[in-house]
Known about the structure:
Strand content: over 45%
Largest sheet: 6 strands, antiparallel
Distance between the termini: 54 Å
Amino acid sequence: TRYAYGDGAQTHFDGAITEHRARGYADANARGIPLPGDAPWVMLYDNQISGDRLPERLANVGFVVRAYRAQIGDAVITTPHINLIRTFNGGWSQMGFELGVPYQADNTVIPAGSRITATVEYLVPPSDKSSYYGASDYLTQMPAEQFQSTAMIQRLARDNRLLIQASIGELRQAQPAVLDAADGATAVQFTLSGGLGYVPVTISGLARPDGWRLEQRIDEVWTRVDQSVEGNDYWQAYDHAASENFDLIFNLPNRGTHEYRLVR
């Protein structure tokens, strides 16, 4: 029944979905809306449908744009843009968000050779604290009224924004985090900032999958990261057969800023 958009610092728009019973864009103002700021997001929430076998009202939906670059002709645009599109599903008037480009009614042609790249994080956060059965500390500590509001997605967008600096190896992308290994006994060394729960980190380009140890610097001492329950069950290896190298994937319970390294 409500739709909203904003960034990690504030909500830019939060409104009720009207009984429009229509499909498509309402007008030109619904197209090419810029989403400035860090960690821009959109959200659909406050579902009033009840009595269905799949209780959709217990969760909301949204997405965060973690990276965006549009080269349209000679113009380079790094601010995400969205369109608001009306939908009419099962007798319900609803709204949808499209990730798009700037809109000009008198110039609707995108030149050949243009390119748009983006990283979008899709989220399905709980909407009712009394129905949440997990053990996530930030959710159990969050006030119940924030579950059914934009405060939920604003926190997910802001606090799950990752910043990474690599001192050994190369950072390929920050979110999802991928680092390319260097030659030598230390494949990567990096500082990771941000995260609420577990942060997946992929270390790529390793000549072999075994013999490595992930460490975290704690009080100036490198300490092994060990999340094992039974043996080496807290990381994954992926074999790139064509290039004859491997990825190692870890899930780091990062919050704040910490330094890590992968060593032989």
